Amino acid sequence: MAIQDEKEDSSVDVSNLPILTSMPKVYSGCCLALSSRLLCYLRTTLLSNPGPVLSVGSGYGLLEAIMLAPPYDMPITGVEVHPSSNRYLPPTHHRVVPGSRFMDSLAEQASVWMFVYPKRVGLITDYISRHGAGNLKAIIWMGPRADWEDYRVCFATRTQALSWSVDAKSADQAGGAAWEMVAVATKLT
Fold first, then answer.
1. Sign of the C-alpha dihedral computed for residues 80, 85, 88 and 93 taken in this order
2. What are 105-125's pLDDT values in tens digits?
3. N or C: which end of the chain has fewer CB within 10 A?
4. Using CA atoms, how far apart are residues 26 and 28, in angstroms rounded to an integer?
5. How does pLDDT run across 4-21, given as a tens digit for each residue?
6. 45 located within any domain
7. 124 half-sphere exposure, CB direction, 13 A CA radius
8. Pick from 167, 159, 160: which is nearest to 186 by CA?
């Protein structure tokens, strides 16, 4: 990624963002069903783990742009593989890696990583292996209920350096859709 010009606009064009309601809805540009309740849940989760957030595989960046914009105002940066499909995130909050096996160095500084509908389990384990000992406090995983069993193993392995406390729930308990899961893995060591 090229170094960003500090004068570049970092604001989100809110006119392009949907107005969320309390009922979860799937919007074009985001796999996850979104609602105002889900965003409040994410904001509360992030407030308990202050610091920058890295969304790995941000795609179009719709969820991340909503999180970045008022009233949520969360410090999030999305990373996507080249060529990026980003449509919503301003350049100051969007990064690109050359391919799906590459990791973004911002992971070392981020306090929370977010994976929404990730394509492969190995992506999370690769990030944990390479950057898990950094500033990381928590990982948020959101995706289909049917996929959670494949991903929970990322947090089951305990080492001297890392162990996790995982709070996994049906997304409808957090304001999302019943067919999805939300898991927050908090780093214990």
1. positive
2. 999 999 999 999 999 999 999
3. C
4. 7
5. 333 455 688 888 999 999
6. yes
7. 25
8. 167
